[in-house]
Amino acid sequence: MRWCLLLVCVGCVDAELVPQEGTFSVITYNVQGLPDALTDSPRPTLDRMQDIAPLLDDYDVVGLQEDFDPDWHDALVAGASHEDAYWTDETLDDRVYSAGLAVLSRLSQQPSATVYREFYYSSCHGTLDGSGDCLASKGFQVATVRLADNEWVDIVNTHHEAGGGEQDIAARAIQVEEVIAALDESHAVVFMGDTNLHIDDVEDVAALSRYADAGLQDVCVLLDCPENDHIDRIFVRSSPTLTLDALSWQRPPHFVGDDGEPLSDHPPISAEISWAASAER
What we know:
It is built from six helices and twelve strands. By secondary structure, it is of the alpha+beta class. The protein has one domain (25-277): Deoxyribonuclease I, Chain A. Helix 4 (166-182) packs parallel to helix 5 (202-213).
């Protein structure tokens, strides 16, 4: 009997030690992981991935786009200290590439507590035209991570349809709705990616408004950032029992090679987020 009581007590102490609040850093980055002939970079893609890799470990949550090739992906995540790492390596039957998405996270406070899912969009436009979106198996990732005692946050990463034609805009609008439909109302959300949504395009503004209507708040907008025209974005949404607050937004300036040139044709976008579990759970 005394041994059983000791076990119960130890369990109570462990529960009390689980943090109920904290902060974490997030970065979203389209790494332009395309064959050398398809990029405008003077440097080989593999070299750029190797330069990007050590910079990613500074962030607790990482969302990558255009991470297509297995060898280049291995170079990107080499040495990463994140406990959770997910990559969309499946190529759909009628496509040439995978979704090119990767998520790295060190948020989970409890081993084996992360649930991972992949979704593929039902709509795209263009193979050799319209930005060629139908060459890739575009979709989004959801890694559901447990924080505090029993609080959940969905880490969502995507790369939306590119292009400004009518069919591109229609496909992108469908994709926005499919992301919203997949979100669990009881979970907090960190949503990031290359949205291809421009603030100077009426249709894109409507799509961004749909995310706002779903409770997803653009960190750049929340903090009145000085560069609100980026299509690479980070959103947050609190749940009834887990509050997420945006503390900072940044376009990190150090993602450049030795020659001072950017390591991708997209800038990385980062944010610092605070979280707190409700006392009334």
